[in-house]
Amino acid sequence: MASAGTGKMTVNPDIAKERRNAGFHVENLTNFIYHGPERVRRRRYMQNIALQDPVMKDSKPWAFRTREEEYELSLRKQLHVLQRQKDLGITDEFDKFYYNEATAPNENNPVGLHFGMFIPTIEKHGTEEQKKKFVQPAKDLKIIGTYVQTELGHGTFIRGLETTATFDPKTQEFIVDTPTLSATKYWPGNLGKTVNYCILMAQLYSQGKCQGPHMFLCPLRDLTTHQSLPGVELGDIGPKFGFNANDNGYLRLNNFRIPRINMLMRYSKVLEDGTYVKPANSKLSYGSMVMIRASIVGAVSRALAQACVISVRYSAVRRQTEVSPGGPEAQILDYQTQQYKLFPLVATAYAYHFAGQAVQSNFLNISKEIEAGNLQQMPVLHALSAGLKAFSSWGASAGIEVCRMSCGGHGYSLASGLPKIYTNITPACTYEGENSVMMLQTARYLFECAMMVQKGQRLPDLVSYLSMDLSAKSCMTSDVALGCLVKAYQHRAARLTNAATAVVQRHINEGQKPTDAFNMASTQLTWAARAHCHQYVVKVFVTTVTEANIDDRTKAALTTLCKMYAVNGIMENLGEFLQDQFFNTDQVDILTRKMMTLLADVRPDAVALVDAFDYHDKVLDSCLGRYDGNVYYALYEYAKSSPLNEKDVLDSFHKYIKPLREGQATSSLPSRL
Ligand SMILES: CCCCCCCCCCCCCCCCCC(=O)SCCNC(=O)CCNC(=O)[C@H](O)C(C)(C)COP(=O)(O)OP(=O)(O)OC[C@H]1O[C@@H](n2cnc3c(N)ncnc32)[C@H](O)[C@@H]1OP(=O)(O)O
Ligand SMILES: Cc1cc2nc3c(=O)[nH]c(=O)nc-3n(C[C@H](O)[C@H](O)[C@H](O)COP(=O)(O)OP(=O)(O)OC[C@H]3O[C@@H](n4cnc5c(N)ncnc54)[C@H](O)[C@@H]3O)c2cc1C
C-alpha cells in the first residue's frame, strides 16, 4: 500500500473510489519507479525510522516559524540525523538519501553543500595528501565547508571572477584577497553562519601571471570558537524568495594567507618555486558544477512529482459546480480543462524521473573515464548535463505553478505545500548555471555537431540523429506509434539545429566575427538546444517503457503517460513541427484527437499514478495532498493554529482601531462628503 500516514479519520469516499477504480496495481508501478520491491521496502523502512523519531516531530507548521527558528530547527534536525545514521550504521547512499528525504522536507539542509559539494570536490580535485588531510575531518564535521564561487559582480562568467590567490614563494602561501566591492563572494549556501571552511574559486596568480580560476581550500572561522578569522569578513545575505532555512552568505577576504597545500592540486599545480603546471583540460575545475547539474534533473522531477500528488489528490476530492441544474457537483478532476492542466504534468514528472536516472548514469560512466585520464567525452557530458538541467528545471518550475493554480484559492495558502515546493525548486533555474546560459552551452555543442555533419564526419551516439534526412515527412498514423513520436522530436531538433547553424554561418559570411554571429543567432540556438533536450527526454521515456519488465496493465498505464508526454509536447510547440510541413493537417488532427483520448485514458488512473510516487503525508506536508483526502479538516486545523489566533482580540485593536472609533464618536463628521 502506498503511504498513508495521517490519523484514524475515514478516507474521503471520492478518493477511495478513485483507488478502487485504477486499472493497474499501484505497488507494481512504485516498484518500477524505485528499482524493485526490495528497494521500496528499504525506502519505507528508512523513512519510517526517520518519521518516528521524536526529534523530527514538529510542534507547529513550518510556515508559522521565523527565519531564525527555521534555520535553527533545520540545523538541529540535520545534525541529529547524521548522528542517528551513524548510530544505526546506515552507510548505503540510497538508504541515506531516503532517510534524509523524510527528515527535512521543508528545510534546505544547512550541511547539504558540505556533503553535496565540499567533500566531493576535495575527493575529485584533491591530491592524495589533501584527501588524507581534509576528507576525514570533513566527514567527522570537524571542518564544515561549502562551495564559494559566485561574486556580487559575476556568477555566470567564471573567467571574470575578481577574487585573487597570489602565490608567495617566500612563505609558501597563497594570499587570497577581495580587491573590489564587486569581488565580494555572494550567494554561496551555508556560508553565512554555518561553515568554517570553503572551496574558494579565485584567479590564480603565480610568477606575476594570471592562470585563471582555480579552487582553494580556505579556512574561514576558528575551528573551536567559530569566530571569523582575522582578515575574513562574512555573514548571511538576508531573506530570499525561498530557501530561507539556508544561510546563503557573503564573504570578503583581506590579504588572507593560506598554505600552498590548500590549492586543490590533482589536475593543476603550483610548485614550490611558483612554476604553474597546467591541467589536461582547463574545464576540469568545473567538474563539481557538472556533477550537481546532472543530479538537479532528478531533484526537479521529485519536486514536480510532489506538486502533482498534491494537486491531483485535491482535484479528486474537490467538488465544484453542478454539472446539470440541481445535480451533484462534479469532482474538478472530471473537467477536461483540469485534466489538460494536470495530466501532462504527471507525465512530465515521470519523464524527468527517467531522464534524471539516464543523465546520472551517463555522468557516472563518463566520470569514470575522466578519472582514468580519458577526457574525450567531457564535451558530451557538459552539453547533456547543462541542457537537461535547464530544460527540466524550467519545465518543473512552470509545472509546479500550474499545479498551484489548479488548486484554486487553497493552492495560494502555504498550507497547500505548493508555494514552498515552488520557491525551493525554482532557483534551480539559476544556480549551477543560469538556464539560458546553460542552453547556450548545449547549443554551442550542437553547432559543432552540425559542422561535423556538413563535413561528413561521424557523430557521437547521443546526437547521431542530427545527420538524419530532413526532407522525410512524418510516419504518424492514427495508432500514434512511439517510434514515430521519437522521430518527430528528432526531426524538429535536427531542423532547428540546422536552421540556427545556418544563421550563424550567414552572419559570419556577411563579415561578422564568430562570437557576434553566435550572439545574433543565440535565441534560435537556444530553441535548438531546447528541442534537443526534449527529444532526449522523449527518447529515454520511450526506451524505458519499451524495455520495462513489468506486468501488462502497469506497462499500459506507463505507455499512455509516455504518449501523453510526447503528444502534449508536440501540441505545445506545434509551430516548430509544422514549419517545414513535417506533419500535414490530417496528422495534426490525429494528434489533437489523440491528446483528448489520452486525457480520458489517464483519468481513471490519475490518483493511482500519483500515489505510485509513494510520498508520505509528512514528506508532502500539505493540507491538500493528504492521502486520506480530508482536506477541509486539515485546512480548518491549520487556520486555527495561526499565531494571530492565539488571542481573540489583538493588542493592535486596542492600539489602532479602538481609538479611531472613539475619535470618530467625538469628532464632528461632515454631514455630506
Ligand atoms: C548541494 C547538494 C547537492 C546534492 C545533490 C542534490 C541535487 C540538487 C539539489 C539542490 C541543492 C541546491 C544547492 C544549490 C547549489 C548551487 C551551487 C552553485 O550555484 S555554484 C556556482 C555555479 N555557477 C555556475 O554554474 C556558473 C556558470 N558558468 C559556467 O559554467 C561557465 O562560465 C560557462 C560554461 C558559462 C563558460 O565558461 P568559460 O570558461 O567562459 O568557457 P567558454 O565559454 O570560453 O567555453 C570554452 C569551452 O569550454 C567548454 N566548457 C565549459 N564548461 C565546461 C565543462 N563544465 N565541462 C566541459 N567543457 C566545458 C565549452 O563548451 C567550450 O567548448 P568549445 O565550444 O570551445 O569546444
Ligand atoms: C538559491 C541559490 C543558491 C546558490 N548557491 C550558490 C553556491 O552555493 N555557491 C555559489 O558559488 N553560487 C551560488 N549561487 C549563485 C548562482 O550560481 C548564480 O546566481 C548563477 O550562476 C547565475 O549567475 P548570475 O547570478 O551572475 O546571473 P547573471 O549571469 O547575472 O544572469 C542575469 C541574466 O543575464 C543573462 N546572461 C548572463 N550571461 C549571459 C550570456 N553569456 N549569454 C546570454 N545571457 C546571459 C542570463 O541569462 C540572465 O537572464 C546560488 C544562487 C541561488 C539563487
UniProtKB/TrEMBL annotation:
GO MF annotations, alphabetized: acyl-CoA oxidase activity; ATP binding; FAD binding; fatty acid binding
Pathway(s) it belongs to: Lipid metabolism; peroxisomal fatty acid beta-oxidation
GO cellular component, one term: peroxisome
Residue sites binding FAD per the record: 150, 189
Location relative to the cell: Peroxisome
Catalytic site: 432 (proton acceptor)
Domain Acyl-CoA oxidase C-alpha1: 286-446
Gene3D superfamilies reported for this sequence: Acyl-CoA dehydrogenase/oxidase, N-terminal domain, Butyryl-CoA Dehydrogenase, subunit A, domain 2, Butyryl-CoA Dehydrogenase, subunit A, domain 3
SUPFAM superfamilies: Acyl-CoA dehydrogenase C-terminal domain-like, Acyl-CoA dehydrogenase NM domain-like
Domain of life (superkingdom): Eukaryota
Cofactor(s) named in the record: FAD
Name the record gives this protein: Acyl-coenzyme A oxidase
